[in-house]
Structure formats: structure tokens, C-alpha cells
Amino acid sequence: MQRPNSDGMGSVECPLCFHIYRIGGLWAEDKIVKDEDRITNRYFLRGARSLANWQFTLHAGSSSGALVCRVNSPYIGPPLMQTDPGPIIITMASERRPTYIHRESGATDGTHLFKGPDDKEYRWRPTSGLWRHKLQCLDPQNQVVATYRVTILAISKDGELCVNPRGHFMIDLLMATCLAMRTPDH
Questions:
Q1: Of 6, 30, 113, 157, which is the most exposed, with the fewest CB atoms less than 10 Å away?
Q2: Vertex 148 angle, CA 116 and 184, to 5°
Q3: By residue range, what is the domain housing residue 86?
């Protein structure tokens, strides 16, 4: 999104924010993602779980919208340090090769890595504090590409994803990876 500069000359790119809501309450598997206006539906997540794994599909706009990606995880449960559950696999509808999200070797904070469409490595790093929890996506230069703020004590809203201009080229992938990072928790 571009907005005019304060001097009226040219424009500046701004972060894009999306609001993620659970459909059906706290334990629901489906989610709807709304644009910054909180009215326009941007994505629909249809989830499924079994005893051993979880998966979801992400669609444009609604449950019957065009497929954006499929996400599969071979593991359900808490990320234990002694357990290597294997990578989360994201298959984008627009790409031939899958994207893998995996735990950073030796990381004890839940940091996960993935490769962007530019073949650079990005990482989602959780940060927490009293009454707040968020995930930051960092690029190879440790610049924040996107931030996912988890909504604490909310029944229907899961959180908000804000994508900085340097991440605009991979909004669909950032949405898929942050939702994959959130799925095991809910």
C-alpha cells in the first residue's frame, strides 16, 4: 500500500496489516483473514487434525476461493526440545517447489526457518512478555519483514499480521508461514 508523503510529493510504502479470526470460537480449526479495513475477506483457512498430524488449505477470499497453498505438518503436540517433529511443508499453488519450515538447529526459543521466493533464508522468532506474545519474521540482515501479534484473552480474534514493505513481494508465503506457526497452538 502506498500513501502520499507529508510534503505532498510522491508516496511512501506502508506496512500492510491483516486481521485473523477463528470461525467458531477458541478451539475452531477454520479461520478467516480480513484486510486492514476489517471488512474485506482476504483469505480463508480450512484446517484438519488427526491424532498424529495437522494440515490446512489457504484459499483466496472465501472457502470456495482459489487455492493459495496447502500446509502439512507430520506432528501435533508441544515442540519439545528433544523431539524433532520434521518440517512443516507448504506447497504454494503458484510454485512448483515446496517450502519447508523447520526448527533452527540448537534454538531453544522456538525459532523456525524457511526459504523465501528469493532463495534467501527467513526466520520466525517468538518474543513474549507479560500480556503480549508476538512472532517476528526476520530477513538475513536481521531486519523485521513481518510481525504477528497474538491476541491475548480473545475468543474469536487470533491476531494481526503486519507485513513491512520489504516483505510485500511474498505476502501469501508470510501469511502461510505465520498461520503454520500458530496452528499447533490452537
A1: 6
A2: 85
A3: 16-183
Is residue 11, in this structure, part of any structural domain at all? no
Q: How many separate domains does the chain show?
A: 1
List the one residue out of 108, 121, 105 whose CA is nearest residue 177.
121
Residue identified by cell 496489516 is 17
Q: How far apart are CA 145 and CA 147, in angstroms?
A: 7
pTM: 0.84
Residue 108, CA distances (Å) to 78, 134, 155 in order: 13, 16, 29
- What is the per-residue pLDDT across 95-143, written as a single tens digit (0 to 9) for each? 888 999 988 777 667 788 999 999 999 999 988 766 668 999 999 999 9
Encode burial over 44-74: b for 16+ CB neighbours within 10 A, e otherwise.
bbebeeeeeebbbbbbeeeeeeeebbbbbbe
CATH number at residue 103: 2.40.160
Answer for the pair 156, 1: CB distance below 8 angstroms, yes or no. Answer: no
Please choose, from the candidates 113, 121, 80, 84, the residue with its C-alpha nearest in 3D space to the C-alpha of residue 181. 113
